[in-house]
Structure prediction request, 157 residues.
Amino acid sequence: MGRKPGPGDKAPDFELPDDSGGSKSLRDFAGKALVLYFYPKDNTAGCTQEAIDFNGLRKAFAKAGAAILGVSPDSTASHAKFKSKHKLALDLISDESRAMLEAYGVWTEKSLYGRKYMGVERTTFLIAPDGTIADVWHKVKVAGHAAAVLAAVEALA
Prediction:
């Protein structure tokens, strides 16, 4: 596990499959702000609420000049079912190899009831139009998070 990138750092590059059979890369968002949110697992309570919150504000994010991209180690098929079940319109990409998760420093050791395991630390990165990281939210608490990120995007514009 390397150093976690932070504000002012160049955002690590990526190209991964998305839920619609295509792929998304950092290059696709050049010249516009990108909200990159990492979450542990499709169809879990916190992850579902976070996706619904970001999805509900997606028009406000677009108006502020930002795209939203969700990332987890789940498969593209899982993402497609998750989006359909919750009527989500935002893009989700799959990092089954965990290379991107590691590049962004979000694949970490976690603990639940004393059991240690590796998993995704819920984290959001705001990437500025120039490809540098403008802001980072680590160990995200879902309630109010999407609105806080939107405020940061609006301040960036």
The chain has a mean pLDDT of 94. The domain at 32-156 is CATH 3.40.30.10 (Glutaredoxin). The longest strand covers residues 66-72. Strands lie at 15-17, 23-25, 33-38, 66-72, 91-94, 107-112, 115-120, 123-127, 133-137.
